[in-house]
C-alpha cells in the first residue's frame, strides 16, 4: 500500500504543520484552505503567517480553496478541522472523497449531542469502514513541529497495513510516528487531555505552582483512564504518547491553546474574553468538557475535573470555587 499523493483539508495550525511533515517525508501534498487568501499565501509565498509565523513550507506542498481540486487523485485525505465542525465539513466533502483513500483524523474532541469520537463521525458521514480510518494523536504542539523540533506521534487504526502506510508517509528527520491499534484509547485520550489542560491553565492563572499542576495532570490521567477502561480502551495507551505524553505537553506548554484559555479564566477573564483573545483558533476542551462529561455520566464514570471544567466554562462557576470543590470531595483511596 503506497501513499504518495495526500490532501490535507484544513489549513490551520496543525493542518499546516502536518502537511509540512508529510511533504518533508517526500509526499506530494495539496492543502485545502477555507479562505482564498490563505491558499494563495501557502501557494505563492510558501507560508501561513496567521497560524505559523516564520515557518517556510516546502516546494512539494501546494494549496487551493477548491475542495474538488484538492481531493482529486488523493491516496490519503487528512481531516484537519475542529471537532465540532467535522460533521458539517465532511458532509460537504463526502461526494468528492476518492474511493478507497485512507482517511486520517487529526481532530481531538468528542462530538456534542451524539457523544461520538471523531473516527465514528467520519465513518458515519463518509460511509468508510473503520479499518480505512487512521487517527493521529500524541504530544504535537503545531508550532514546535513546524519548527522541526523532534517529536513523536501515534497513528491508530484497526488495520495495521494502513497505519504503516501513513507511518511511512509521515516519518522524517524530526517526526517519529508509532503505530497502535487502540483507536478508542487514542481518541479518548486526545480529547480528554484538552480538558485537563484547561484546568492546569486555570491553576496557573490563579498563581499555583508545580505541585498543583502535577496533581491535576496525575488525577486527570486517572479520570481519563477510567473512562477509557469503561469504553474498551487499552490501559497501556494512557501510559503512552497519546496519554501521558500529550497530557504533559499540553498541560505544561504556553503554546497550548487549551492551557492558555484556562489561564485567562484563572486570571479572572470571562469565557467570552478568552474566546476573543484566541482570535478564531479553537480550544477544543471548552466544548469537549461538556460532551466528555455527558459521556462519563451516561457510562457511570466519575470525572470530577472534567465536571468542574464544564461548570466553569458553561455554568459560570468561579475557578476558585471549582478548586475548593475538588479539594473538598470525600476522602478516598488513590485507586478507588
Ligand atoms: N494546533 C495543534 O497544535 C494541534 C495538535 C494536534 C491536534 N490538534 C487538533 O487538530 C484539530 C485542528 O486543529 P488546528 O490547530 O489546525 O485548528 P485551527 O483552529 O488552527 O484551524 C482550523 C482550520 O479548520 C478550518 N475550519 C473549517 N471549518 C471551521 C469551523 N466551522 N470553525 C473553525 N475552523 C474551521 C479553519 O479555516 C482552519 O483552517 C483540532 O481538533 C485540534 O485539537 C491541534
Ligand atoms: O493547542 P492545543 O491546546 O489545542 O493542543 C495542541 C495539541 O493537541 C497538543 O498535542
TrEMBL record:
The cross-references to PROSITE patterns, in alphabetical order and at most eight, read:
NAD_G3PDH (PS00957)
Residues annotated to bind NAD(+): 10-15, 142, 257
Looking at the record, the residues that make up the Glycerol-3-phosphate dehydrogenase NAD-dependent C-terminal domain are: 182-322
Q: What is its EC number?
A: 1.1.1.94
Give me the residues that bind NADPH, please.
13-14, 34-35, 51, 108, 142, 257, 282, 284
Quote any Pfam family the record assigns: NAD_Gly3P_dh_N
- Places the protein is found: Cytoplasm
Name the NCBIfam families on file: PRK00094.1-2, PRK00094.1-4
Q: Which UniProt keywords apply?
A: Cytoplasm, Lipid biosynthesis, Lipid metabolism, NAD, NADP, Nucleotide-binding, Oxidoreductase, Phospholipid biosynthesis, Phospholipid metabolism
Q: Which residues bind sn-glycerol 3-phosphate?
A: 108, 138, 193, 246, 256-258
What Gene3D superfamilies does this protein map onto?
N-(1-d-carboxylethyl)-l-norvaline Dehydrogenase, domain 2, NAD(P)-binding Rossmann-like Domain
What role does this protein play?
Catalyzes the reduction of the glycolytic intermediate dihydroxyacetone phosphate (DHAP) to sn-glycerol 3-phosphate (G3P), the key precursor for phospholipid synthesis.
- What is this protein identified as? Glycerol-3-phosphate dehydrogenase [NAD(P)+]
The positions annotated for binding substrate are 108, 257-258
Task: State the reactions this protein catalyses.
Answer: sn-glycerol 3-phosphate + NADP(+) = dihydroxyacetone phosphate + NADPH + H(+); sn-glycerol 3-phosphate + NAD(+) = dihydroxyacetone phosphate + NADH + H(+)
Concerning SUPFAM superfamilies, the annotation shows: 6-phosphogluconate dehydrogenase C-terminal domain-like (SSF48179), NAD(P)-binding Rossmann-fold domains (SSF51735)
Task: Please tell me the species this chain comes from.
Answer: Amycolatopsis pithecellobii
